[in-house]
Design goal:
Blueprint (H helix, E strand, L loop, with lengths): L10 H11 L10 E7 L2 E6 L14 H20 L6 E9 L8 E10 L3 E10 L5 E10 L6
Antiparallel strand pairs: 1-2, 2-4, 3-6, 4-5, 5-6
């Protein structure tokens, strides 16, 4: 078995770059945190926020979709390096279970990583639970890199 490649950007590097380049989305009040990264995947947290609740006490679908999208972005950047203009071209989400009113964790596994496209699979869980609350498949377009 061959050894897995190291990520091109560490958790710390990604956190610093995202805070500098996207302060409107990734800051201490945004609720997002990068838990860990590896080449081909990551775990990202969305801290619980009562403003994300919908009637009936469930977390909004938009909250889970944004978490999944951010998580795939982090996984792509960890694998290919700092390419901030990578963009989502497709995102399909299946809501499987009402999430508990607590932090959400998204674990990404890149199932294809090419020069121009990356496809990620995301499992979203409420913290402390094994059962999935949502499952996502997302495709990112990676712009050509110079050099």
């Amino acid at each position: 078995m061959t050894e897995m490649a190291a990520p091109k950007l560490t958790r710390k590097e990604l956190t610093e770059l995202l805070r500098a380049e996207f302060p409107e989305m990734f800051n201490s009040e945004s609720g997002y945190a990068i838990e860990k990264v590896w080449h081909g995947g990551c775990v990202v947290r969305r801290h619980f926020d009562r403003t994300s609740l919908r009637p009936g006490g469930t977390l909004s679908g938009a909250t889970m979709m944004a978490l999944a999208d951010f998580a795939v972005y982090v996984a792509v950047l960890a694998a290919v390096g700092w390419v901030p203009l990578a963009v989502t071209t497709n995102l399909t989400i299946n809501f499987l279970k009402k999430p508990a009113p607590r932090d959400l964790l998204a674990e990404v596994r890149l199932i294809k990583l090419g020069k121009r496209l990356a496809v990620g699979e995301v499992d979203i869980r409420s913290e402390g639970e094994e059962e999935l609350v949502a499952h996502v498949i997302s495709t990112y377009s990676i712009p050509p890199q110079s050099g």
